[in-house]
Specification:
mainly alpha; about 425 residues; single chain
């Protein structure tokens, strides 16, 4: 068990290493030379960690923004955190070993399903697999499953989601990217499909092409806003400054140190744009290597398979939609934060990380299906939806005797609720 846990914790949970090893395998299967294998593997790993560096900058700035936001608008309640759920399962329920084994089992089931079913997707977002294994093990345990049966059930459900979610999203991903080379490997896909559905309902009828967020025409004096990073700065700098002004200096004193809190907010907004710039550079580098390398796996091991990658790989295809998706999703989560307690649900505090990454990706889906109107209206509904499911999860956790916990990735929540409302009643009947 300790050896397996060591491999999982030090290798299989390191998504960059996994993607690098997969790229190396693909190049070897294509019988590339040693130099080409080394260069392709290294550049794949480099691309992933450049992407991760950009994400880390965004996490830091958005964490700070979240503290300001809660202080400015006096929001208190449950902040969804899958990390907290994982910690409770490991430390209080003693399920760390089962989660690790389920993580490995999910990956194996994913490979088998991709090999022997029409869903040819290899899910390569390692951290998301860990969260899926956490949720399926917890709810499998709460349903009465133990030992090998618990690990098997969690592996089967998690592995199914690894191929089903990319398969459901692929028709829209194909329209976004213009080809079939990659898939989306992110366990917020149900939310993206909800936005796409709303976008389809509100789209303009009887037009050949929906007005896109990327086709916005600006006056000559504002043409500089057609640069992705300038337009992002124009949105984020006022947003950070206004929220900082309302919050005041005290809530963010631990971040600011001796600097003026308004100047710090300005610099954090700039850092946000820097993070997006680095993230985009990493995406371009990663895709330039992983797609050709993956061709060897598609030809040899899992014919016609596609790599399912994390959501930022879609950001360069519609950067304006990312910003619109972030803003409209945040509006939707704020509405839900106020409205859901009125009908008996817990107060779910908006998570800015989820709003940016999931909201931005959902904005791309909405724009692709329903143009600007789809991105805006669909984004608000997406915000409502990704707040409703965590609220349902809190209620379910409390009914199972767990503390006030929740998570954000709607696919993992769905997998957990599948156990709670289908498997558990069956186990109780037996």
């Amino acid at each position: 068990m300790s050896v397996i846990n060591g491999i999982i914790n030090n290798v299989l949970t390191q998504a960059g290493i996994i993607i690098g090893l997969i790229a190396m395998l693909g190049l070897i299967l294509q019988k590339k030379g040693v130099g080409a294998v080394v260069i392709g593997t290294f550049k794949t790993i480099l691309g992933f960690y450049v992407l991760s560096a950009g994400s880390a900058v965004l996490v830091t700035t958005l964490t700070y923004f979240g503290v300001m936001f809660q202080a400015a608008f006096h929001t208190t309640g449950i902040v969804p955190s899958i990390e907290a759920v994982n910690g409770y399962a490991t430390n209080n329920l003693g399920l760390g070993g089962q989660i690790a084994l389920a993580f490995l089992g999910i990956f194996v089931v994913n490979i088998l399903l991709a090999r022997f079913t029409p869903w040819k997707y290899i899910f390569l977002t390692g951290q998301a697999l860990l969260w899926m294994s956490t949720m399926t093990v917890i709810f499998g345990y709460a349903s009465g499953l133990r030992g090998a049966w618990l690990i098997l059930a969690a592996s089967l459900v998690g592995g199914f989601f690894c191929v089903a979610m990319p398969a459901l999203a692929q028709p829209i991903v194909r329209r976004i990217t213009g080809n079939d080379a990659i898939a989306l490997g992110h366990f917020c896909t149900i939310g993206y499909l909800v936005e796409a559905g709303v976008a389809w309902l509100v789209r303009k009828r009887n037009v050949d092409k929906q007005p896109s967020t990327e086709d916005i025409k600006l006056p000559r004096s504002l043409e500089f806003l057609q640069d992705t990073y300038m337009s992002l700065a124009v949105v984020m700098i006022p947003l950070f400054l206004v929220v900082a002004a309302v919050a005041g200096p005290d809530p963010v004193a631990e971040y600011v140190d001796t600097m003026n809190y308004m100047m710090y907010a300005f610099l954090q907004a700039i850092q946000f744009v820097v993070g997006v710039y680095v993230l985009m550079a990493g995406v371009r580098l990663l895709l330039g290597e992983i797609v050709p390398a993956f061709r060897g796996i598609s030809m040899k091991l899992v014919p016609d398979s596609k790599p399912a990658l994390d959501c930022p790989v879609l950001f360069p295809y519609a950067p304006n939609a990312v910003v619109i998706g972030f803003i409209t999703t945040t509006i939707g989560t704020l509405i839900a934060m106020v409205a859901l307690p009125a009908i008996g649900f817990a107060v779910i505090v908006p998570g800015m990380l989820t709003n940016f990454f999931a909201g931005g990706t959902a904005g791309i889906f909405g724009n692709t299906v329903g143009g600007r109107r789809g991105a805006i209206v669909g984004g608000v509904v997406h915000g409502l939806f990704i707040t409703l499911l965590p609220a349902l999860l809190v209620t379910t956790f409390m009914n199972l005797g767990f503390p006030n916990l929740s998570a954000t990735d709607v696919d993992t929540i769905t997998a957990g609720l599948l156990f709670a409302y289908i498997v558990r009643p069956i186990m109780n009947a037996l």
